Amino acid sequence: MDLRGDALNAKSLLVGFGESPYASTSNGGWSETPFQRWIKFKEAYSQRFVRDALALSKFTPTHCIDPFGGSGTTSLVCSQQGIRSTSIEVNPFLADVISAKTNPSDRKTLLRNFERVRATLSQVQLQPLDRTFREAPKTLFEPGLNGRFIYTKAVGVRILTYLAAIEQLRDGKAKRTLKVLLGGILVSVSNIVVNGKGRRYRSNWQARSTTAVDVDRLFEAAVMQCAADLDEIANSALSPTTLLRGDCRSLIHKCSIGDISIFSPPYPNSFDYTDVYNLELWTLGYLKSRNQNLSLRRATLRSHVQATFEYSRVTRTPQLTKTLKKLERAREHLWDRRIPEMVQGYFDDLHLVLSGLTRRLARRSLIVMAVGDSRYAGINVRTAEVLGEMAETMGLHVVSADRIRQIRASAQHGGDRELAETRVVLRT
């Protein structure tokens, strides 16, 4: 489950645009705030980032577009502040997370359906794991591969029994919420942890004795916590969120006209989010075959080389041209020879997304994004600078580009906090 790569999930300082000590941080990771705590989403940006972005507008926005929905932070904050939003998400598990947060079940209905699930557990009959998960990673269930496995057999069977019982529910909102909450405990009952750019086996994982009782306990706790969160919004008027499921490059034109866009795209750092969330995707049945896994990878931004893409050169800016020449000269020293093409494809994809946004945003709307640089063979990919140059060629005005925070470089580059992320603000 671990990811390879020379570039870190980190973000670099934009030279020439200046730095503000008051720039809002995007560093949220997962937090213990209501709704956000349902899923430990490591890459989530903070709610403060969204609130600060909304405050940049000279008028109160009425409709916000987020092409990279992720954990739903943008839509959640907008909904709570009375702002309609449209969120696009290609990962089906994360799309359900967004939907569960922004179109939630009510507390009583959730608890009633949870009791129905528990009452039917003894009636569930499962197919053999090796038949149901024929094309899943071999390490998913005990005995695994070469003695390595993510779930003990008892834990895996208990999770899948809950899942089968949940799928029998008739209430769509409760079913979706319970499935998301079940997804939220998968790492806790497994032999892996979220670490760095992916997942790795726990220290001394062979000595762990996680049981079906642990699944029962953690799932019940997650449901009770969710019920408490739902209590807090019981009498609140939430603005509606439209969720588009799929590739934002092809779906952006389906958004209704907005007056602000707030998002953070994947970074050009070979961080494949399909890989990062394949535990949830495979265990919960979103993926059933290798072809589905490959199709999902190809539907994501070209920020990784875990799938084969077609490449062409669409975007040209001075900074990007200079970077690509350096990467091409260093090709033999890169961990993957396709890195230069990946970087080009990444900016071509963002060009496509920004072009679509300019046609879906009203005049003088803001685009606020958290972006980050990467580094390969000592060569920095200055994302914010390239995007600033690109935006100007598209008729967008660069309002600001402020450094948000510095992040530790990869071990190959000494592990120092040399890289940073940048908040880029554009105006249509």
Task: Map the helices and strands.
Elements (H helix, E strand, L loop, with lengths): L46 H10 L6 E4 L6 H8 L3 E6 L2 H11 L4 H14 L8 H4 L20 H15 L4 H13 L7 E4 L2 E4 L10 H21 L8 E5 L2 H4 L6 E6 L9 H4 L1 H6 L6 H9 L19 H12 L9 H22 E12 L1 E3 L2 E3 L1 H11 L3 E11 L11 E9 L1
Parallel strand pairs: 1-2, 1-6, 2-5, 6-7
Antiparallel strand pairs: 3-4, 7-11, 8-9, 10-11
Helix pairs in contact: 3-7, 4-7, 4-8, 6-7, 6-8, 7-8, 13-14, 14-15
Describe this structure in words.
With 428 residues, the protein is of the alpha/beta class. It has two domains: 36-104 and 236-427, 3-Layer(aba) Sandwich (Rossmann fold), CATH 3.40.50.150; 107-232, no CATH class. Helices cover 38% and strands 16% of the residues. The chain is built from 15 helices and eleven strands. The strands form three sheets. A seven-stranded mixed sheet has the order 5-2-1-6-7-11-10. Strands 3-4 form a two-stranded antiparallel ribbon. Helix 2 links the parallel strand 1 and strand 2. The longest helix is centred in the last third of the chain and has 22 residues, at 339-360. The protein is globular. The protein starts with 46 loop residues before the first helix and ends with a strand. The model is unreliable at 1-23 (pLDDT under 50).
